[in-house]
Every structure is written in structure tokens, then in C-alpha cells.
Amino acid sequence: MLWSFPPHVSRLLGRLDERLAIYHCVDEYAAFSGVPRDVLIRLEADMVRRADVVLTSSEQLCTERRPLNARTHFVPHGVDVEHFARALDPSTRVPDELRGLPRPVIGFFGQLADWVDLPLVRALADARPAWSFVLVGRSTTDVDVLRGPRNVHLVGLRPYASLPAYCRGFDVGIIPFRTNALTQRANPLKLREYLAAGLPVVSTPLPEVARYDGLVHLAEGRDAYLAHIEAALRETSVEAARRRVDAMRGESWEARVGQIEAIVAPHLERRLAGAVPAAV
After folding, report:
1. Residues 153 and 182 reside in one and the same domain
2. Over residues 30-44, mean pLDDT
3. Given a cut of 50, is residue 224 above it in pLDDT?
4. Fewer CB within 10 Å, N- or C-terminus of the chain?
5. Residue 115 lies in a domain
6. How confident is the model at residue 272 (pLDDT cuts 50, 70, 90)?
7. Is 279 within a domain?
8. Domain interval for residue 184
9. Which helix (H) or strand (E) holds 136?
10. Tell me, what's the pLDDT at 270?
11. Residue 213, exposed/middle/buried by CB under 10 A (0-12, 13-18, 19+)?
12. Cα–Cα distance, 71 to 52 (Å, whole number)
């Protein structure tokens, strides 16, 4: 079986003696900065057409690729619920770099890339100097806009294993993404991870986040973000946190693997029964 996440490897199809070729699309790759957009669009279209099965992580990615291949399916990301639910365990120690910060702590983890609205984060920090803003993750874009305020803390990359501890130190998790062709098709992993940690969430209203209306506050711009963060800070009871965790139990990675197996297995069984190589 050939299972590819990169969109530009269609030249390998049929060369590896595979019985099934799967293209798993988790981003609008041509919308990333600094990539050869037209080339990627052409190569991905070829990959989509020739794959036996196409899986996508957002509904829009699915809708846009299905005309090229009817065997295209939407399977959202999952979450390691038990891992992130450790944030609610009193024995989980908040990292030292968070323990002395003024509360509330407004937290973010993930790559600090050009799709994150860093000027918005700066505006929030300037508007609420008594709050602490903690951003966990490596920077792949200029973050100088965040280096002035004393209440913004860039802690850098931290191990995945430590993220529940950081979540325990957060009061609210934010997803301050810009709205563009990339993020409109994104399905942020951190959304389910925040929720599985019991955190209230405030996010830019991206289509895949909006599916969780009722669990997530949607906001655009500084004033709306501030208002929704303040509302989220009133939703930090243990009971509310448990409801968020429980809502994620049906969205585990195990559940997602089950969905994928149900899609892929019939195709693979037919291939094996007929001993027919994948399409070339």
C-alpha cells in the first residue's frame, strides 16, 4: 500500500508494486507561503485523479477534490483524549515558567507561522496588560511584534508530552488564525486538544472550528476576541471542563482509524482478491 500525505509523488504510483494508493490531504498545500503554487496545483490534481482513495481533513478540501475523484472522503482529525485530559489531573504539575504568571493565562500552542495573526495577539495583550499571554511553539515567521509587552511570553518549542501540563496552566486556549485560503481549509489539531484538556476555546471563525459551535467561542478582531475571552473565563468550572472532555471522547484517533478502515478495507480487499495493481 502506498499512503502519501505529500501531494507531489504521483510519479511513484505503480512503481512500488502497491495494491492500493491513498492520498491523504490535510492542507491546501498550494496556499503555503513560498511554494511553487502552480506546480503544486498541477501535481496534486494528478495525484488526486490517480489515487484509489483520497482522504481529506476538512469538508472544503473534500468538496474541491471530489470532482477529480469520486472516491474522496472527509475524515476529520482526531485527538488523544486520555493524554490531554491529564490537564484536569491535580497531580499534573504546571510548568515552572507559568506558575508565577498573573492570571488569567491566555494560552496558545502550535507553530508560530505566518497564518497566525500575531498583530491580533499583540493588540489583545496591549488591551489587557493584567492578563498573561503564553505562546508555546517554534517560530517560523517574524515574531518581533510580540517582543514588546511584558505580559506576552514566548516559551519556544516544548515536547508533546508536556502539553497537558501547559494546558493545566492555561485559563483559555486561543486559535488566533488569519482568514485566508490556507486556514479556511484547515482543521486545527489544537482545537480538539484544547477541548480534550477541558479548556474553553476562543477562535477565529474557521469553517471546521465553527462545527463545534456551543463548545467554542468564535470571534473576529480585537474587540470580539476580548469579549469572548472574558465570557470564556466565566466557563472554567470543573463541570464545564468535564463536558468538553466528554464531547471529545467520540473524536479519538481510535475512532478516526475506524472510519478510515471502513473506507479503505473494501478497496484493499477487492485489490487483493483480484491481485490487480493500483491504478497507473
Report:
1. yes
2. 97
3. yes
4. C
5. yes
6. confident
7. no
8. 81-250
9. strand 132-136
10. 87
11. exposed
12. 7
* Residues whose CB is less than 8 angstroms from the CB of residue 45 and which lie 6 or more positions away in sequence, other chains included: 68
Average pLDDT over residues 138-159: 97
Phi, psi of 239 (to 5 degrees): -65, -45
- Which helix (H) or strand (E) covers residue 48, if one does? helix 37-50
Taking the complete model, does pTM exceed 0.85, yes or no? yes
pLDDT in tens, 174-221: 999 999 999 999 999 999 999 999 999 999 999 999 999 899 999 999
Amino acid identity of residue 63, one-letter, is: T
CA-to-CA distance for 155 and 136, rounded, in angstroms?
5
Contacts of 241 (CB under 8 A, 6+ apart): 88, 198, 199
Cα–Cα distance, 118 to 185 (Å, whole number) = 20
SS3 content of the chain, % helix, strand, coil (to 5): 45, 15, 40
Residues 92 and 185 in one domain: yes
Residue 280 lies in a domain: no
- Indicate whether 218 and 195 sit together in one domain: yes
Q: Residue 46 has which C-alpha cell?
A: 494528478
Same domain, 101 and 214: yes
Taking alpha carbons only, the member of 174, 184, 191 closest to residue 251 is 191
* Residue 48 in grid coordinates: 488526486
The β-bridge relationship of strands 132-136 and 53-56 is unpaired
Mean pLDDT value across residues 160-179: 98
End-to-end CA distance of the chain: 14
* Cell (9 digits) for 236: 472554567
Strand partners, 108: 135
Whether the pLDDT of residue 104 is over 90: the answer is yes
Tell me: the pLDDT tens digits for 47-98? 999 999 999 999 999 999 999 999 999 999 999 999 999 999 999 999 999 9
Query: Residue written as cell 463541570?
Result: 239
- Count of structural domains within the chain: 2
Please give the Cα distance from 216 to 200 (Å, whole number): 7
- Whether residues 219 and 92 fall in one domain: yes
